[in-house]
Amino acid sequence: MTAPTEPLDVAVLGATGTVGQRFLALLEGHPWFRVRALVASPRSAGKRYADAVDWRLEGDVPDHAADLVVRSAEDAPDRDVTLALSGLDSSVAGTTETRWAEAGLFVVTNASAHRMDPDVPLVVPEVNADHMELARSQRFERGGAIVANPNCSTIGLVLALAPLHRAFGIEAVEVTTLQAASGAGYPGVASLDLLDNVVPFIRGEEDKLAEEPAKILGRLEGGAIEPAALRVSAQCFRVPVVDGHTASVSVKLATSATADDVLEAWRGHVPPRQGLPGETLRPLRYTAREDRPQPRLDRDAEAGMGVTLGRLRECPVLDWRFVALAHNTVRGAAGGALLVAEQAVLNGLCGRHAGRS
């Protein structure tokens, strides 16, 4: 497993959307990837990216993308690129990503359309990088493949659960998420619906939080994922925060553990350095402040790729409860998917010499 000797050509699907913009910001100056194609809806096709996009991030449209001409998602896939990073809306992602994979492209998707497909790895690199090998068995024409990034709330939750599951086993999880407005894309939730308000329903989110952790924490055996035997009860709320999803979590462990045991499991979760451009030295950090984590103060930990934990306490119903916070459009979306793509390259799944059976 080695880093590429020269940058791989990349397409960004859904380039004008919230996740697509974040992809392009993170790809500026990336040592492994070079943006060669931008794909969006037909109404943006044929325009310079700088003219097609309503740029909503800090600063200006990145120079490396500004003059690229946007292609339509309905066009044939661009076979001159090696990798497609997809920020497409789930309503169109399934069919479009399949077409790109069938054309021989390696697709890393941030959408939900393929996450629970039996042969599609659902990957958080610090937790289950070994699941990436499942992509080798996919039977797309010309050797393409799809690998999925989990739901934006699932990522923060699973990074917090993985060390506990490994050390003690987890039988049950209750989680309530307070999800930022940016999770709904732009323009997202109408201001009069969200200001001075909390919305107790986000379509599809509770199902994703209930299903995805078991797949991610499961084992790859015999060319299939055996899901972890844990139950997740989830409630999801939209709150008037710009960025940063907060999760209130209670867990029932399979074996007993003290507070010090739990903290040691988290502190000991330091994945080996692999040289990935987007990896963090410490993806989990715990704060003893009784009023933290907070989105405004903690969402940018590790350049937005870290998960901040706090308020560990005994739970009178289960065993332990705590709070977890992650940046939903960086760690939970574009940054997480980009890390998955880097892991795929390092594993030899994506690149000139990639091999899939």
Task: List the main descriptive attributes of the protein structure presented here.
six-stranded parallel beta sheet; globular; 14 strands; 11 helices; single chain; alpha/beta; 357 residues
How would you describe the overall organization of this protein?
This protein has 357 residues and is of the alpha/beta class. 27% of the residues lie in helices and 23% in strands. The protein has eleven helices and 14 strands. The chain has a six-stranded parallel sheet with strand order 3-2-1-4-5-6, sandwiched between helices. Strands 10-7-11-14-13-12 form a six-stranded mixed sheet. Strand 12, helix 10 (295-298) and strand 13 form a beta-alpha-beta unit. The longest helix is centred in the middle third of the chain and has 17 residues, at 152-168. The radius of gyration is 20 Å and the shape is globular.
